[in-house]
Amino acid sequence: MIPKVATVLSAREWESSLVASAQRAATIRLVGRVYQPDEIEAMNVDVVVVGAETSWLSAARLQSWRREGIRVVGIYPRGDTPARSLLELGGADEVLSDDTPADAILRHIRSIPTGRSQRIRKAGQLIVVGGPRGAPGRTEVAVALSLAWSRSASVLLLDLDQDAPSIGIRLGLAPRPDLVDLLDDIRSGRAVDPKSYPRYRDLAVGPGSHRAERYVVPSTHVEELLDATLAAFELVVVDTSPGVHELEFVFKRSDHAVLVSDATAVGLIRTARMVAEWAGPPPALVINRAVGATSEIVRAARKWTGLEPAAIIKQHARIREAAGKADSPDRYLSKPLSRLAIPG
């Protein structure tokens, strides 16, 4: 079988030489020269050839490809020991210096067993919980769903609201380790150990950072974080920043989405605007803080958002009291959300 191969574009000579040699020899099927990782994920490829100089490359990214059954040939500048170590740490099938002749690289590619039957492990599912600005209760819904699902699956709740991270405080967790610590471990090549994550009952948590020196996690690092944690947990639930734009790539990547809206007219209009910019899978709409006739709220939600509410949470003082005391979400919140079955 002729392997389907993609190369990651590089300014170094090895990549253009390999492409030219592949076109002459016709011993592999070159299906693309890509620039970003999501281009590879959209392709049905057997082998990726990537240089260690690629800015977004990490051990977690390499491991993610390997879990998906994609074989990896890594190229590093001769004499660059850290670059070679990165490729080896990520589990590249072949690690070659960039002065390896193109014909020899082709032979290495041909020698690698390919086929998606080589897939190592099914990655977990990614669920995003989003909502517009205006405090619609997004975090409380994310906590309640994650706790409920953690009774029958391994679940990680990640706080990716970098403007106002609140999950750690909400659950009464220590300030450290936080998201930055967890990411440092992943970027250093350590495999994710679910037992090492902060815990609230059966739920693993990746709390946001409250350090004095504010650190915004770059999108490429968030991708690495998701790659690594999805390999270790059955479900990864992400509490996002308000709106779509800041974490649009997370919404696009998600398997399932929950959209939380305040029940007021202003809340529904804000949610409708977010739906118009939506970039992920069709969301399950949760209406929060409902007051009055449920039927009227449902009609308004259908009219303004075009979505059928999956759950309606009535306003109740006990919901806020439980949140303020770092207790589990009150049943007035958790019971309506029980209609959202565990993804799978």
> CATH homologous superfamily of the largest domain, by name?
P-loop containing nucleotide triphosphate hydrolases
| Helix-strand makeup class | alpha/beta
Distance between the termini: 33 Å
The Cα radius of gyration reads 23 Å
Q: Number of helix segments?
A: 14
- CATH top level of the largest domain is Alpha Beta
Q: Please mark out the parts with pLDDT under 50 across 5 or more consecutive residues, or reply none.
A: 117-121
Helicity range: 25-40%
Residue fraction in strands: 15-25%
Mean pLDDT: 90
Indicate the CATH topology of the largest domain.
Rossmann fold
Secondary-structure element string: EHEHEHEHEHEHEHHEEHEHEHEHEHH
The count of β-strands is: 13
User: What's the shape?
Assistant: elongated
Q: Return the CATH architecture of the largest domain.
A: 3-Layer(aba) Sandwich
How are strands sequenced across the largest beta sheet? 8-9-7-10-6-11-12-13
Largest sheet: 8 strands, mixed
As for the number of domains, it is 2
Outline the structure in words.
- The protein has 2 domains: about 5-120, Response regulator (Rossmann fold, 3-Layer(aba) Sandwich); about 125-335, P-loop containing nucleotide triphosphate hydrolases (Rossmann fold, 3-Layer(aba) Sandwich), CATH 3.40.50.300.
- The chain contains 14 helices and 13 strands.
- The chain has helices spanning about 15-25, 35-40, 60-65, 80-90, 100-110, 140-150, 165-170, 180-185, 220-230, 250-255, 265-275, 295-305, 315-325, 330-335, and strands spanning about 5-10, 30-35, 45-50, 70-75, 95, 125-130, 155-160, 200, 205, 235-240, 255-260, 285-290, 310-315.
- The strands form 2 sheets. An 8-stranded mixed β-sheet has the order 8-9-7-10-6-11-12-13, sandwiched between helices. Strands 2-1-3-4-5 form a 5-stranded parallel β-sheet, sandwiched between helices.
- The longest helix is centred in the first third of the chain and has 13 residues, at about 15-25.
